């Protein structure tokens, strides 16, 4: 037999082995999961970490007001979106060097299995719940306060929770809950069940309007979405970040047209005024913005364009 003929079976075996390996790799199952969500940036001397609580599908044509379903669908299509819109729920952790402050606390178990992942994101970011010193609530809707509790225990055992007194007076009053429509009463219960255990433990404090809370972090009244809705201004070494809470729900619609409101607003006219003021100021001054329902991590800048605005998300950065 000629030597090259004797090699043919060897080559065939090798080829079959390579094909088997390739087939084995191709057959690997899809993971179908995301990593716990956090994104970190420096703001002067402060470390800011965006934390993802998860996402929620919203039927926005049914929720947005001061517009029409046709206009909403057209705006969504321009951003390659369609209903329902997968909507982020974000919180923000600020390490000032002296205090570890968190703005909003996610939803806990109040909104189903696609949310309630804030603690996982916090731990993935290198922190533990017991390290959080203070939690500032933008407003007491369930997707901002539900994560304060883990079962019947305080999720952040060492933290003091703070919120505007107008929101506390509204959402924590049983008389207001009893007077509300039946389909709105769960919102009051969610706030009470999340906040009252901290109040009982002496760990809930209110403020009234514009207030410095710790050096470099202050509350700024933006009432309308709820009676005590608050934005938080973070400043260090000349750098500024304003955390908007729910001044934004659907970026694809409300940045081009800030007059669009949402059924969740307690006072839609006041909410629209606060939104217009906040957008104009952010575009004029060029500071950082963060919002609870902008696509994660929800950090970036705003630029005026025509009668509306364009969102410029944060460029990805690797910290040293």
Largest sheet: 7 strands, mixed
CATH architecture type: 4-Layer Sandwich
In whole angstroms, the N-to-C terminal distance is 65 Å
Widest sheet, order of strands: 1-2-4-5-6-9-10
Name the helix and strand elements from N-terminus to C-terminus, one letter apiece: HEEHEHEEHEHEEEHHHEEEEEHEHEEE
As for the CATH topology, it is Metallo-beta-lactamase, Chain A
Task: Tell me the helix content.
Answer: 25-40%
Shape summary: globular
Would you give an account of this structure?
By secondary structure, this protein is of the alpha+beta class. Helices cover 31% and strands 28% of the residues. The protein is built from 10 helices and 18 strands.
In short:
This protein is α+β, with helices and mostly antiparallel strands.
Provide the fold topology.
Layout: H1 3-26, E1 38-43, E2 46-58, H2 60-63, E3 64-65, H3 69-78, E4 85-95, E5 100-103, H4 118-124, E6 134-136, H5 142-145, E7 149-150, E8 153-154, E9 160-164, H6 165-171, H7 174-179, H8 185-200, E10 204-207, E11 211-214, E12 217-221, E13 230-236, E14 239-243, H9 251-254, E15 261-262, H10 268-285, E16 288-290, E17 299-305, E18 308-313
Parallel strand pairs: 5-6, 6-9, 9-10, 14-16
Antiparallel strand pairs: 1-2, 2-4, 3-15, 4-5, 7-8, 11-12, 12-13, 13-14, 16-17, 17-18
